[in-house]
Amino acid sequence: MANKFLSFACIRNDNNNSYGGGGNLSPRPHYPSMPKYPKGFSFDEEKNMNGSESKALFSVFGMSCSACAGSVEKAVKRLPGIKEAVIDVLNNKAQVIFYPSFVNEEKIRETIEDVGFQATLIKEEANEKSTQVCRIQIKGMTCTSCSSTVESALQGMPGVQKARVALATEESEVHYDPKILNCNELLQVIEDTGFEAILLSTGEDRNKIQLKVDGMHSDSSVRTIVNSLKALPGVEDINFEPVSHKLSVYYKADVTGPRNFMQVIANTGSGRFKAMIFPEGGREAYRQEEIKQYYRSFLWSLIFTIPIFLTSMIFMYIPGLKHGLDTKVINMLTVGQVLRWALSTPVQFIIGWRFYTGSYKALRHGSANMDVLIALGTNAAYFYSVYSVLRAATSPNFNSTDFFETSSTLISFILLGKYLEILTKGKTSEAIAKLMDLAPETAILLSLDDQGNVTNEEEIDSRLIQKNDVIKIIPGAKVACDGYVLWGQSHVNESMITGESRPVAKRQGDMVIGGTLNENGVLHIKATRVGSESALSQIVRLVESAQMAKAPVQKFADRISTFFVPLVIVLSLSTWLAWFIAGKFNGYPKSWIPSSMDSFQLALQFGISVMVIACPCALGLATPTAVMVGTGVGASQGVLIKGGQALESAHKVNCIVFDKTGTLTVGKPVVVATRLLKTMALWEFYELVAAAEVNSEHPLAKAIVEYAKKFREEEETCVWPEARDFESITGHGVKGVVRNKEVMVGNKSLMLKMNISIPIEAEEILEETEQSAQTGILVSIDHELVGVIAISDPLKPGAQEVISILKSMKIKTIVVTGDNWGTANSIAKDVGIDIVIAEAKPEDKAEKVKELQASGDIVAMVGDGINDSPALVAADVGMAIGAGTDIAIEAADIVLMKSNLEDVITAIDLSRKTFQRIRLNYIWALAYNLLGIPIAAGALFPSTGFRLPPWIAGAAMAASSVSVVCCSLLLKNYRRPKRLDTQEIRGITVE
């Protein structure tokens, strides 16, 4: 829980604030993983704070808006030794990271109370974590029956809160209580169900590095190195694999890093040991190895199967060869039969051994999968052939017919199908592979002296970057890690992460994201988030988690899979029995039976064909492959979709609720007009107002101060007069004494509260501003109203067109905002929205969403602020603007990384296209089985004489899975609606 508080950025609100409206959304987006360092943060300042860090979590009561949070944050950060302070208004909590040698928890608590809020230290909760997440790779699953078995076994364990097993990715994500069980127990449960389990990651906030250590030849040397590493501060856990000499070190990135580990290893044992980063492997390496295994198995199978096929199907029609193959060995046993038996045996029991082991594992746990069908079908053909051959060898007059070509050809085609399926299935997760490839392989590490001057440059592996390293980024190079610019200016292309096509200007103090492309200037950046903490890693983890999550429609395939294989076995036996009994009792003409077989053999072929043509894999892959491709395509376009549930809900949406500030509007208020009611110089007026407002954290106050700077353009730094007796009045405004004049800046209610009369002229001006979608701020000096400042938050580019397109898609649109009715109505009128709800508290927004749901609407909520979080959670689909606060992003189902309203349409359209594909997959998979099984059972044989040999049925089964995956892969060609492309022409950038 505490981990989430670290990422909270409580920076804006559009209701319950000092002025009753407005917001503060930087035009430069920030991202879920990016910490907020102040501009101008110096190298020397951080070096001086070399003590160990501590965290403290406080419960803070009395905060009602972002202005309150800003006051608390500002007061705490003014204390010496504070590294970071983040305030969560919604949950009334504050998390502070500090250096104990400078300040303590009690001092921080007193400071919060001095601001005017009640604060209580929450002990131990900051470091307590009751849920941990681990990802496990599972080898050997073939269909939904396998994945359901593993999932049931995991969910049955005490301490497991949630377990998801994805057939398409062959992975599991398990949420569990680490106090009750550990990862090794989870791996053991999977092994017990008959599958191989490999741990991919443990927890979401532990950094891990894998090192290969040369020189360790004894247990004592291993213990020496492990003990040396464990002695380092920040090292949490170490695992050693003796076979590969691989050392996995889990550590806290804030305290230590991989270069420290390599140095300790090198210094241990007088230089006998040498450490290097373990070569990359993981899932892609395993997938490539699996592809090679199936390819090799298929080739070996062909080597044996082609001669079998030729001797039974081709050579029997060539006179010379037919005579040789028909030569008797013993009694009626021929050379051709012996040859086919010898060639088919290794195919059945060596190459096809995987089907036996798969069947055994499934049946041992009371389930049946595709391997069971294949094993039963091929064994029926093989062992009947063995019986037939042995009887021919012991009988002088038994003319036998064997099906050795059926079993071997069947296995060959199924192996080919599995090879093609894995090959195509791997392409569905290319989005993750592309994201991972964004990180550069190397980085230039700079060494700085005490004055911050560069003393040395060194090229290192980018995985060796540690927190607080200074990295040089040359033009054309990728940014090696998340950080902020210490020196230099350039333009950075962030499209690979955010989907935003336009390069973003970067200068000192600006944040940069690892994996983005530096275009022109040289940058020196300070690393702030490395390893699993980086934005890229978090996006990869989000996409992986999304691809793991099952869509509700997947339950349909899961239900079918529970009885599919047993039903097919019953149908197969029934088919064989029906044809066998019909043949025994002359139920059909003898002329129907081919000359090379009898009625029993004909019935057996029909039964085997039914068994092998049925394909549970196609049904099992219909949903997950489409979801994988859909979420991957979304990620590449800057639309992060958190799983199948979000995709399925989004395609049904018929009502969208929009927040106003920062969503429909830019979120950066600007002063647009000033009306003075008393004769005085404008610069003098703004000097007094700015002197009072500079002490406020409110976004409208910042807009006024920024505008006031225009009257001091000749000065490099603006130093405003001191405001004595300053007071921030929550929900109203501010007041203070500037140059012996009492200045009050705020809304109408503040003036009434302070008994300041409002002339009719001022009332008319306020009414005008509201009708123009502007916020009116009143200013009084010495208890006399002297002016009205009109502040506007301009509409986002393309907002009107987006609403128009949504209406054409039959989607109802509503504005819900905390701003006043006049401004809300004006904004809604400008964009074309008819239904408006203004002056709404956060809980009111959530209630409105629930009302709409109760009336039968499928509701999407689009918002960006802390106050939108309850509504985002309540909605069927929550969409967070990517430049919004991290808590909104956490609560949302879909994150729009570019902060463009057009992406609302992209998200809905993509979900509709994805579910069209899922429906098509299901139609294909069901139609294939519903048509294929009757044909294999001989439904067409009486009227047309057409029958499906088992080996052709096997080939058809293999082809069905491949076709479903290929159908999903067509989603990779997705393009957003053409109507949105014209929006780019109208786009503007607000700086």
List keywords for this structure.
36 helices; disordered N terminus; 991 residues
Outline the structure in words:
The protein is an alpha+beta fold and 991 residues long. Helices cover 46% and strands 20% of the residues. The chain is built from 36 helices and 36 strands. Strands 24-36-35-34-25-32-33 form a seven-stranded mixed β-sheet, with helices on both faces. Strand 10 (235-241) and strand 11 (246-251) form a beta hairpin. Helix 23 (682-693) runs antiparallel to helix 24 (699-708). The longest helix is centred in the C-terminal third of the chain and has 35 residues, at 902-936. The radius of gyration is 35 Å and the shape is elongated. The model is unreliable at 1-51, 124-129 and 984-991 (pLDDT under 50).
Topology overview:
Blueprint: H1 2-6, H2 43-48, E1 54-61, H3 66-77, E2 82-88, E3 93-98, H4 105-115, E4 118-122, E5 132-139, H5 144-155, E6 160-166, E7 171-176, H6 183-192, E8 196-202, E9 207-214, H7 219-230, E10 235-241, E11 246-251, H8 258-267, E12 274-277, H9 282-314, H10 319-325, E13 328-330, E14 333-334, H11 335-351, H12 353-364, H13 370-394, H14 404-427, H15 430-437, E15 442-448, E16 454-461, E17 470-473, E18 482-487, E19 490-493, H16 495-498, E20 504-506, E21 511-512, E22 517-518, E23 523-529, H17 535-548, H18 554-584, H19 599-613, H20 616-636, E24 639-641, H21 644-650, E25 655-658, H22 660-664, E26 670-676, H23 682-693, H24 699-708, E27 723-729, E28 733-738, E29 741-746, H25 748-753, H26 760-771, E30 774-781, E31 784-792, H27 799-808, E32 812-816, H28 821-831, E33 835-837, H29 842-854, E34 859-863, H30 869-874, E35 877-881, H31 886-891, E36 894-896, H32 902-936, H33 941-944, H34 950-969, H35 978-981, H36 983-986
Parallel strand pairs: 25-32, 25-34, 32-33, 34-35, 35-36
Antiparallel strand pairs: 1-3, 1-4, 2-3, 5-7, 5-8, 6-7, 9-11, 9-12, 10-11, 13-14, 15-16, 15-17, 17-23, 18-21, 18-23, 19-20, 19-22, 24-36, 26-31, 27-28, 28-29, 29-30, 30-31
